[in-house]
Amino acid sequence: MNQLQPKKLYIKTYGCQMNVYDSDRMADALAPHGYMPTQEIADADLVLLNTCHIREKASEKVFSELGRLKELQTEKRATGGDLMIGVAGCVAQAEGEEIARRAPMVDMVFGPQAYHRLPDMLAKAEANRHMHPALKRAVVDTDFPEEDKFAHLPAARKDVTISRGLTAFLTVQEGCDKFCSFCVVPYTRGAEVSRPVAQVLEEARRLADAGVKEITLLGQNVNAYHGEDASGRAVGLGELAYLLAEIPGLERLRYTTSHPRDMDEGLIAAHRDLPFLMPYLHLPVQSGSDRILKAMNRKHTAAEYLRLVERIKTARPDMAMSGDFIVGFPGETDSDFEDTLTIIRETGYASAYSFKYSTRPGTPGANLPDQVEEAVKTERLARLQELVNQQTTDFHASCVGKTLPVLIERKGRMPGQVGGRSPYLQAVHLEGSTDLIGAIHEVEIIGTSTNSLVGRLRQAAAA
Ligand code: SAH
Ligand code: SF4
Ligand code: F3S
């Protein structure tokens, strides 16, 4: 193939927001090497699967997708073309060589801490292509390197950045030292690491400079952030929020995902002081039963969680809560499950994500006795979801009649409509010209539709 011709890259992203962020960073790392993104998988010269290992179903998707890719690769080769395939992300980290063995058409397998080495891996994998098939091996990189990955990942061009939207993710913390007994993340993402303050501020400034209005700070334990400042002092997430609030052009800040144990005074104070910090907090509790919380190794009780929510709401009365729940953790009785419904009722969630417990190899939970039957999990999940769906509906309804600042981000589904997000991350649709896009406007909420709000423009945003 002609080396000067740009090659096409297709990245398929599974899992959490950090994978979305990482996929963009991989695209940025490959851009200087002539790889341009394509939305058409059939046109791709290189396909990267950025995978998720969190639950069994998420992991299984990789192998079925690889089956489809193999067909595409065979077709392309039959017509003189080719297709390289890389598996990245948390399944790659967890399974490494095993993927190369099970799926020999894969060229590269590499974990989340190796993304800055992607161009080198690709060069090696390209060289390997010319080897005899019997000798050819995938390039596998699942090391946790000493060097700072982020310091070696290139930034996107301004036009590329803004083409990705007015809102952006920014990873400030990665990895986890908490070892909840159900969770693979400490094994797939590695130990908790915070990026230095200057590096975060620089990336945030670059995003704002390109026209980004809203940033969501990411971390598996984002509120455990403790990045160093220039003097080597550890700065918490609350203090970081005050620094980010100074960046010209940046209008909104969010962060996810937080652990209840890391919600410190500094961060709660930031919610009190900074209107810029959005009043919507994803604070998973997983279960409302102290017995199950203990078995999950969450290291707090239900009452402590409720007290914490109260403190947060005292600091920021309009705070809307979001959470994650697991049903059917080993040993969960009907009464434990009722405790979960109780904590949901007492907290009152604007939104919530809920999952059946999925046994993950290598986690302590996998070896526990009293695994809960599938049918029981199904029934509990349905009951829990009925409750949280009602809470979400009630929360949307409670917004009707209010005027909310909405960041208008795009054209709406209907002609003459635009759409954006409320402070509470609700989708809002309204009649209006596309000139509104790119700024925060005061919108009166006049109704709700499935999963979104309907609004009417109140006034132009102040300059
Ligand atoms: N760091 C975040 C969670 C990351 S995983 C936190 O501490 O809250 C996202 C969600 O997936 C978790 O909150 C949990 O609800 C769910 N989850 C994780 N492992 C799971 C498993 N083995 N089975 C079912 N759900 C799981
Ligand atoms: Fe997983 Fe617990 Fe770490 Fe969250 S805090 S990533 S649930 S181990
Ligand atoms: Fe999945 Fe890894 Fe994120 S396991 S949820 S992609 S950290």
How do the strands of the widest beta sheet line up side by side? 2-1-3-4-5-6
Specify the CATH architecture of the largest domain: 3-Layer(aba) Sandwich
Rg computed from alpha carbons, rounded to a whole number of angstroms:
23 Å
Residue ranges: pLDDT <50 for 5 or more in a row? none
Distance between the termini: 52 Å
Largest sheet: 6 strands, parallel
CATH class of the largest domain: Alpha Beta
Helix content: 25-40%
CATH superfamily of the largest domain: Methylthiotransferase, N-terminal domain
What is the overall silhouette? Answer: globular
**Count of beta strands:** 21
Strand pairing plus helix content: what structural class?
Answer: alpha/beta
CATH topology of the largest domain: Rossmann fold
Report the average pLDDT across residues. 95
Query: Could you say how many structural domains there are in total?
Result: 4
Number of contiguous helices: 15
Approximately how much beta-strand content do the residues carry?
15-25%
Binding site for [4Fe-4S] cluster 1: 16, 52, 90
Domain TRAM: 397-459
Cofactor: [4Fe-4S] cluster
Keywords: 4Fe-4S, Cytoplasm, Iron, Iron-sulfur, Metal-binding, S-adenosyl-L-methionine, Transferase, tRNA processing
